Amino acid sequence: MFDTGEIDKFEDAAGVAAFIDRLRGLDRHVDNGTRIDMTRLLEEVKAAATAAQAKYAADFETARLAQRAALGVPKSQQSRGIASEIALARRDSPKRGDRHLGFAKALVHDMPHTLNLLERGLLNEWRATILVRETVCLNREDRTGIDADLCSDPATLDGLGDKALEAKVREHAAARDAEAMVKRARKAKEDRRVTTRPAPDTMAYVNALLPVDQAVAIQAILGRDADSIRATGDERTRSQIMADLLVERITGISTAVGPPITVNLVISDQSLFGDGTEPAHVKGYGPIPAGLARHWVKRATSKEESAARLQLRKLYANRDTGALTAMESKSRCFPTSLARFIDTRDRFCRTPWCDAPIRHRDHIVDHHNGGPTDANNGAGLCEACNHAKQGEGWRSQPDKQQPGERHSYRFTTPTGHEYRSEAPPMPTPLEVYMPAERWLQTILYEAV
């Protein structure tokens, strides 16, 4: 597929970079048969790259643990930040970095045949993930045995779809250790939870991980009652009624009234009071159209009972950069007002490629090392990123801020790789000239 010469060795990063460069220059003026052949070959390249990544990730963890053990780091702290370093290298979130590391260790240490198929391009990353995931509850001996049963001969899995592969692995796992599968099912019940995540068009998904009997019962009851309501002539679709019933039964309030919740809405004065089009920002969700934000405010303030519980806070942002003004405290912990300031400024976890909700307000320079409790030395982080930052060899430092610049800081991983984090801009305020610096207000609107 490629000429030999400058790409004859992949022992170093430069060789791989040259290979990637050659991929960008592939000839596209070919017949359709060649295009299909190349599509297949490039799929094999992706699989082989996944296998190589897995080997490097597993080797990286082994080496890092050995280094920290030699330094006398307590065993409970030796693994801190390792998955986060891998995630940063992959431009991915820490949670996915942790999954990738677990996947890598399983392949390298327990499943050599699966790794071999991946290297040869006969198994893609997702199907290798299924094999790892469905054997995670087994001991090493059983997992390695299933690996040999299913992957020593490439023909065994040839032509199987994802569901068929999943069923086949579970069948082998149950045959080897039925008790482990039962324990896994019992443990899964402990992981029940409810989460939300953004969806397109200012919607959101509410996900509930429940035991199957409970989940099926909820679906069946909502469906049954939706059918009854539809039978009375209601013009809503069955799905719409089910969604409305879910909200009403959880909140105890009709969807026509709206649930009693707090919504933190950050919107510029121009978008709120004028005809500005710059999007507003909803905490925990992201940007929404200015028109929709104005509609929310108008709907809330039109109700006398709701208007009494509205709060309006003024924040000040530079028109050119969107930077907020700073606040300071002598406290070890960030007080409520300063924590709210950091949450509003940062929106999501400040680690690059991590968009998890903020759980911790972190001192960029640790407090015990003299780091002040102020906005410049504070950053909103998720729990995983805050814990990773405490790992041996991690360093961070806020950038020197010029007036009006957005907040930023840099951190360095134990390998010496440096990353920069910059706060997102605030909505642009209305352009008004003031006798002092051009610090203009942005609105933090809380509708209860």
Short structural summary:
This is DUF222 domain-containing protein. With 448 residues, the protein is α+β, with helices and mostly antiparallel strands.
Descriptive account of the structure:
This protein has 448 residues and is of the alpha+beta class. The protein has helices at residues 13-24, 32-70, 82-89, 94-110, 112-119, 125-133, 140-151, 162-176, 178-190, 212-231, 238-251, 269-273, 290-301, 304-307, 336-346, 383-389, and strands spanning 193-199, 203-209, 263-268, 280-282, 286-288, 311-318, 328-329, 360-363, 373-374, 378-381, 395-398, 408-412, 418-422, 439-447. Helices cover 46% and strands 15% of the residues. The chain folds into three domains: 31-190, no CATH class; 193-251, no CATH class; 328-422, no CATH class. The strands form five sheets. The chain has a five-stranded antiparallel sheet. It has a three-stranded antiparallel sheet with strand order 11-12-13, with no helix packed on it.
Strand order, largest beta sheet: 5-4-3-14-6
- The average pLDDT score comes to 82
Distance between the terminal alpha carbons, to the nearest Å? 62 Å
Number of domains: 3
Structural class: alpha+beta
Kindly estimate the percentage of residues that lie in beta strands according to DSSP: 15-25%
Main sheet characteristics: 5 strands, antiparallel
Shape: globular
How many strands? 14
How big is the Rg? 27 Å
* H/I helix tally: 16
Parts with pLDDT < 50 across at least 5 consecutive residues: 1-8, 304-308, 433-443
In oligomeric terms, what are we looking at? Answer: single chain
Order of helices and strands: HHHHHHHHHEEHHEHEEHHEEHEEEHEEEE
